[in-house]
Amino acid sequence: MSDREHGGEMVDVRWHEHAVSRADRERAAGHRGCVLWFTGLSGSGKSTLANAVDRLLHDRGCRTFVLDGDNVRLGLNAAPALLRARYGEEAAVRFGLGFGPADRAENIRRVGAVADLFAQAGTIVLTAFVSPYRRDRDAVRAMLAPGDFVEIFVRAPLEVCERRDPKGLYKKARAGEIRNFTGIDDPYEEPQAPEIVVDSATRSPDALAAGVIGWLERAGTIPASGTQRAP
Amino acid sequence: MSDREHGGEMVDVRWHEHAVSRADRERAAGHRGCVLWFTGLSGSGKSTLANAVDRLLHDRGCRTFVLDGDNVRLGLNAAPALLRARYGEEAAVRFGLGFGPADRAENIRRVGAVADLFAQAGTIVLTAFVSPYRRDRDAVRAMLAPGDFVEIFVRAPLEVCERRDPKGLYKKARAGEIRNFTGIDDPYEEPQAPEIVVDSATRSPDALAAGVIGWLERAGTIPASGTQRAP
């Protein structure tokens, strides 16, 4: 590009962009980008299932990532106290996320926006959040390109989830130590038209994960393998 | 996994996780994940250079993505008016981002947090934001794992940037139509120890992009190619 340079100073041309498109990225990945949005009660197995699907996709060479509370709570969606320590009072009050309705909506909105970016990058991103409110999930669906949002309802009876209680949260909620806990004193609004429903009380994570993979093959998100299994 | 199922109901076992690690993702990608943080005045060529580097990395088979104003302003870092229309007044006032000091800091903080997630996914993510304040950039550096933050100072004299004025913003700033514009009535704090400095006034984007690629090869972020070029 030496024709653009004269005497050490570039002439004032509009540099042209060689931007890599989403289609370019998906071609390189060998599959489409999309968001697998796992929703369900605490203890329903969202995270376990997301990780099992992630493992299967990764082993097939897909570009994947998992977004969950563990990797957004300390960063993108930090609590007020964390922001206060690093960014001061105004940042804590304005941008820190608690558990009020607006905070929950913003939590899901940010996760949706980030998931959108991963999808645009040609990645299959799996999100594992209770995301109990239909309105918040539907807002994410509306934010994404058509077909990018794959809502996966991880269904399990409350009694099963409460018996599992992997983090001891139901016990605390029943004892009144946690308030506004989904399923106890805050509602879980079931999806009305999810792309996929899985029953985690009656089937193993591996069986359910294989079902999700089959769905993605049939949808054309990922290429079909020689060892396709029934959902 | 039928041994875990009894009479149609799963026994209450702790499902074990098959989580894919960052190392797994980087092995599959064939390179390390990291954040290439381009900083400099408006018109310095950050976006053009980021896209040129992105193209070179993509053509080598790397997993990449570009974060810039175009893909975060309408989503993750939406302005108050956009949030008001979709999420109501409280969301607009609390979470919408304007141009005050706290808003600018939060803008960069969220971009940094998202870039961190992409790096964890084994992606080389390129960010193109003026990011004029040293404190905000250093906070992103501190947020990331050691070595993940590659600060690239795109240096060009203000006169050159103002002559380019690709978006007509300097003209508006000089006319008083835009206030707090970096370089005019708001400071740009140059990086003190950036990993890379490029002079966009005297070299072409392609030459500069080749230099960045050489740096990444020497740093071990990407494998060296047979056609390595001097920086």
TL;DR of this structure?
The structure is a homodimer of 231-residue chains. The first copy, chain A, is an alpha/beta fold.
Share in β-strands of chain A: 5-15%
This entry's quaternary arrangement is homodimer
- Most residues in contact: chain pair: A-B, 71 and 71 residues
Mean pLDDT of chain A: 90
Largest sheet properties of chain A: 5 strands, parallel
Q: Helix segment count of chain A?
A: 10
Radius of gyration of chain A: 21 Å
Biggest sheet of chain A, strands in spatial order? 4-5-3-6-7
Record field, number of beta strands of chain A: 7
The outline of chain A comes out as: globular
Helix percentage range of chain A: 40-55%
Order of helices and strands of chain A: EEHEHEHHHHEHEHHEH
Distance between the termini of chain A: 54 Å
The helix-and-strand class of chain A reads alpha/beta
Unreliable segments of 5+ consecutive residues of chain A: 1-16, 227-231
Name a few traits of the molecule.
homodimer; 231 residues; alpha/beta; five-stranded parallel sheet; two-stranded antiparallel ribbon; 13% strand
